[in-house]
Every structure is written in C-alpha cells, then in structure tokens.
Amino acid sequence: MVQTGNVTEFILLGLSPNPEIQRVCSELFLFLYMAIVLGNSLIVLTVSFSKSLGSPMYFFLSHFSFVEICYSSTTSPKLIADLPDEKKSISLEGCITQVFFIHFFGGIEMFLLTIMAYDRYLAICKPLHYVTIMNYWVCGLLVGTAWLAGFLHSSAQILLLAHLPFCGPNVIDHYFCDVLPLLELACTDTFFTGLLIVANGGSLSVISFIILLSSYSVILFHLRGHSKEGRRKALSTCASHITVVILFFGPCVFIYLRPNTTCPMDKMVAVFYTVITPLLNPIIYCLRNAEVKNAMRKLWVRTLKEREARRE
C-alpha cells in the first residue's frame, strides 16, 4: 500500500503552459493516436487473417503491434483529454496505476524485441533446425514469458514506490506519471530507492541490448560465407527489426544511463517513445517488408470482394 502522506492527487503541468500550443497539440496528438491504433491494428489483422504470414516472425510482430497500442494507450488518451484543460490532475491511485502499466507494456516490448532477434538468429544461422525449434508451442511459451517478465518488472517498480510518503508539493512537471518525477516529490530520502529503480530498469535494458547485439553480431559473422543475394535477402529481413530496436533503446539509454533526476528534455524523449515510436512501427514494417504489403493488399481485395458478394 502506498503511503500517501497528505497528497491524494497530483497536478500535471503538461507539455506547455501556452494555451494555443496546447490546443494545436490536442488536435495533433489525437490524429497521431488514431494513426497508432489504426496502423498497428492493421498489422495485427493482416497477420491474423493472412496464411502467407504464418511464420513465427510475423506471429511475434502481431503481438508486438498489439502491445504498442496498449503502451501508447496508457498515456495518450489522458494527454489528449488534459491538453484543453487549465488544471490537469490525476489521483494518487491513478498515478500509480499509470506507472504500473507504462512499465508493464514497456517491459513486454523489450522482451518481445529480444525474442524477435533470437528468432532471426535461428532462421538465418540454424535454418535446418528452425522449424523444429520454433514450433507453435514454443512461440506461445516465449510470448507468455514476455508478458510474465513484463509483469514482474513492473511489479518490482511499484513495490519500490509503495513505501514512499507524499506530503507535498504535488506538482509533476510532466504530462504523465513516471517513477523519476514521483521520487522527486516523495518527502523522504529516495537515493537508495532511486538507485534500485534505475538498476531494475537499466539492467533489463542493458541485458536485452547485449542479447540483441550478440544475436546480430553472430548473424553478420554467419553471413560472410553466403552469396551476395543471400546476404541481401537475410539482411532485408533484419533491417526493420534493427530500426525498431534503435528507436526503442535510444530513449531507454537516455532515461536510465544518467543521474537519477529529471531534466527538461524528458518530455520530448517521452513523446518520442510513447507516440512517435508506436506510430513508426507499422510504417517501418510495411514499407520495408514486401510480404506484409502483399498480404495487406490481398486482404483488402478479399474484403472488397466479400462486401460486393453480400450486396448481390
């Protein structure tokens, strides 16, 4: 149970104090959030209804896209709703809940990216054993493990916050609740708690990044003996994933591999990983992947034909 002290709600300062900027941002972020939901939902539906996308790579991609929708939904709807309001507040319970789901879905994304790198390693370096190793049961187990690991990571963050009292002030210079701003508002010494929280999130990021780096290093080394066309085809399947990895881990490095304090750039970095990255995910995978584009085109044509058949 969180020790509340005298504080029962927090005031969020939002993105900007300028009302005109807030109005423009409200309309812009509403459009971006709708694009995030639509784009990632399109990937989930395409993978679910296209037989040509039945490989483990696309199975993991569909789950990643679904988690992207959930992750963005933890902050974007409230941001959009709060922007036109002069007073932006959130209850203590709502704040803690938001922190939990941000780290829950963020942790799942991190583990899914690691699983996807392992999948590419097996497909390229162990092609004869790939189908045997990456069967349907193993894929389901890996995804379930990612969800469990995300839950344990987020629960650890919340448990570290649970003993902190909040006596005032209650103003958070951000547009959503996160761990570091809450640590600054706690009316007790939070150095050790902050160290544990950063170590928890930072160690997961570093370990995952090392696994990713190792996987792609082995892949590049393995491809030296392939033909030019073979290298091109193999690297094209990895390019989209590597791009998403860079976009995901860049903000993680900025947040966790620095002193345990907030800074003015945090808001812009937060916009990047809660809005821009989930928006770019479907664009990256669709534009760089011919199989996904063809599957979407076929699904669209099939849907139109079914509608015409029902009308007749």
TrEMBL record:
Location in the cell: Cell membrane; Membrane
Classification via InterPro entries: GPCR_Rhodpsn (IPR000276), GPCR_Rhodpsn_7TM (IPR017452), Olfact_rcpt (IPR000725), Olfactory_Receptors (IPR050427)
PROSITE patterns registered for this protein in UniProt: G_PROTEIN_RECEP_F1_1, G_PROTEIN_RECEP_F1_2
GO CC, one annotated term: plasma membrane
A Pfam family recorded for this sequence: 7tm_4
Membrane topology label: Multi-pass membrane protein
Domain G-protein coupled receptors family 1 profile: 39-285
Key words of the record: Cell membrane, G-protein coupled receptor, Membrane, Olfaction, Receptor, Sensory transduction, Transducer, Transmembrane, Transmembrane helix
Family, similarity comment: Belongs to the G-protein coupled receptor 1 family.
Protein name: Olfactory receptor
